[in-house]
Amino acid sequence: MAFIRLLHRKSDGEIVFRKPPSGNVPAYAILSHTWGDEEVIFQDMEAGADMSQTVSKAGWRKIQFCAKQATADGLQYFWVNTCYIDKKNTVELGAAINSMFRWYQNAVHCYVYLSDICKPNTGTDQRVWEEAFRKSRWFTRGWTLQELIVPRLVDFFSLEG
């Protein structure tokens, strides 16, 4: 199994990269989502990367959401696949793909982030919102099946969190 890289939200709110010592992985949340434009990738989060560029990417919103939700759930660590699998390293990518099941299984909480669904307005017919929910892009992706059934606890969130 590949090692897992985690994001850590420090007490001052700063989000930093952490590679836990072997065999000593802290409790963590995990994000399930679909990829979009301007995702934060591994190279953006490496030590020494220009974070001013990273936080301006659209994908940073997912990371902020996950950090905030993990903190609300009493967790300091979380994992987001876009930024913690080095897709340029084929050996690492293969090992990560083979480890994904375990990473989702070992997560304390899985947050499904539906970036194409907004919270319903107070006047919105519930059936209209439910139909939009069912048509979310997340439900059309193959990877998301394991992300739905493997974790112990799964919660769904709209674009607004």
Summary of the model, kept short:
It contains seven helices and six strands. With about 160 residues, it is of the alpha/beta class.
| Low-confidence runs of at least 5 consecutive residues | none
Taken together, the total number of domains comes to 1
Average of per-residue pLDDT values: 86
Mass-distribution shape: globular
Largest beta sheet, briefly? 6 strands, mixed
Count of individual helical segments = 7
Q: Indicate the structural class.
A: alpha/beta
Distance between the termini: 31 Å
What fraction, in percent, of the residue positions are helical? 25-40%
Order of helices and strands: EEEHHHEHHEHHE
Beta-strand share of residues: 15-25%
Strand order of the largest sheet: 2-1-4-3-5-6
Say how many strands there are.
6
If you compute it from the alpha carbons, what radius of gyration comes out, rounded to the nearest whole angstrom?
16 Å
Provide a descriptive summary of the structure in words.
Pfam families: HET (PF06985). InterPro entries: HET. It comes from Hyaloscypha bicolor E. Residues 28-116 form the Heterokaryon incompatibility domain. This is HET-domain-containing protein. This protein is α/β, with parallel strands linked by helices. The protein has one domain (6-157). Helix content is 36%, strand content 16%. The chain contains 7 helices and 6 strands. It has a 6-stranded mixed β-sheet, sandwiched between helices.
